[in-house]
Structure prediction request, 135 residues.
Amino acid sequence: MKWKATVEELSESKVILSVDDDAAECGGCALASFCAPERSCRVELPLDGHRHVKVGAHVEVSAPDAVRWRAILYCLVLPVLFSSLAAAVVLMADGSELMVALAVVCAPVLYFLLFVAFGGRHAGESLWRIEEIID
Prediction:
């Protein structure tokens, strides 16, 4: 998975990239949101290993396949399992169909609230790499 980005800011400790609009059509922004939900199409990297870049440079960035699979696990698989478990618990407790439906709808909402509250981002782990400078 590779996208084009532009270096927006450099500081002593980090590089901030803006994923280009055409990359967003291919899920660039979706992955950036997974890595840093508060920044949408902006990605923050530690400066280590990226000292060769300059503000305004067009670069190609990539995310390891493990990041994509982790996003699929956290955002698709676990919420479905959580909903299924909630439905099974309500059914075993002889709940009505309405209670099962409410459990199935509320379970992913609760899951995502907990996910956001307890760290949807992996602290200290850089999920993106600058592969090459384009210009």
